[in-house]
Amino acid sequence: MTRFTLRTLCLSALLAAAGCSEYKAFDTVGYLRQQYAREMGAQEAARVAVPFELNDEIRGSLKTLPPLSSELRRINQVNQFIFDGLKLQYSLTPTKDAAETYRTRSGNCLSFVNLFVGVAREVGLNPSYVEVTDLQKWNHREGMVVSQGHIVAGMYLDGELHTYDFLPDRHKAYREFKPIDDVTAAAHYYNNLGAEALLAGDLVHAREMITTATRIAPRFDKAINNLGVVQARGGEPEKALETYRRGLAISPDDSTLLINMARAFQQLGRTGDADQALAKVEAENTGNPFFFIYEADVALGRGDANKALDYMVRALRLDDELPEVHLGLVKVYLALGDLGKARHYLARSLKLDATSKDALRYARLLGQ
The CATH number of the domain where 334 resides is what? Predict the structure, then answer.
C-alpha cells in the first residue's frame, strides 16, 4: 500500500468518524447574550433574561421524547409536548419566559412562543419568532396609546413559512408575517412586560422594563413609543416629545407615536400642533379598527356618545371578529342607556375572548 493511499484512508476514516459524532446545535442562547453585551455592556447584559432559555427540568422532560427524523413530525411532537403533555392554559398576563411558562403551565401568546422556540431548538429544529404585522393592537389609557405587537412562532418547511400560534377563542385571519431576529424578540418580551405594567399603573416597573427593551434594541419603535408614554405619565411631556420624535425618525408614519405626540402637545397647550398630528393619523388609519376604537373612547371621555357610536360602527364594518370592537360597543351603548344592546355585544365579545378582564368586569356589572 502506498503512502498516499494510506494517508487517504486515514483521512477518510477521520472524516467518517467526525460525520458520525453527535450533532452540536448552534448556541442561540449564548449568541443572544453576546448581542446583549454589545448593546448594553457585559454587567447590565448579565441581568437580562433570554426569553426562550430552557432549564434542566425542561431538558430532562424532553429526553423522554423519541427521536424523529422528519421535521414536520418533530414540530407536531413539540406541540403535543406543550399542549397535550403540559396542558398549557391561556393566561393574558403576565408575559412569561419559557421556564416560567413551563412551570406554571400557563401563559399568553408570547409566553407560548418563548416555550415553543426553546423546545423546538432543543430537539434540533430551527424556529424563529414572527411578528404578525396586520394585527397591531392598541391599548389606551388617558388618551395615550401603548404599543404591543402580536408574535407567533414560525418555521420554514420546503421553502414555505408555517406559523404556530396560541390565541384562544380568536378569529385568526392574519395576512402579513415578518420573521424577526432573537434580539427584536427579546425586546418585544421586555416591551410586553413594560406595557402590562403601564396599563396596571405601575410606572416604576414599566420604566425599568421598557428601558431594558430600548437598550436591547435601540431602534425598536414600539418600546420607544411606550417610553414616551411613561415619561408623559410621569409629568414630563417635553421629554416625551423628544422620545416620540426619536421614534418617528425611525418610523415616520407610526400612528401610535403621532397620537401620543398629539397628546403631549395638548398637555403643553399646543392645540394647533396636536390637531395637525391627529389629522395625519386619521388620514392614514381609515382601515385600522383599533384607531376607531381609540377615537370612540376619546369621544366618550368628552361625553359625546353619539360620535363614539359613529366611530364604533366604522370599526365594526372593518372587522366584526375583534372582541375589542364588541367591547367598545358595550361601552357606547351603556353610555347611551341601551342595556339590551350592551348585553348583546358583551355576549359577542366574551364569545370571541372569554379571558378578557374588561369584558368580565362588564359582565359582572350587567349581571351576565
Answer: 1.25.40.10
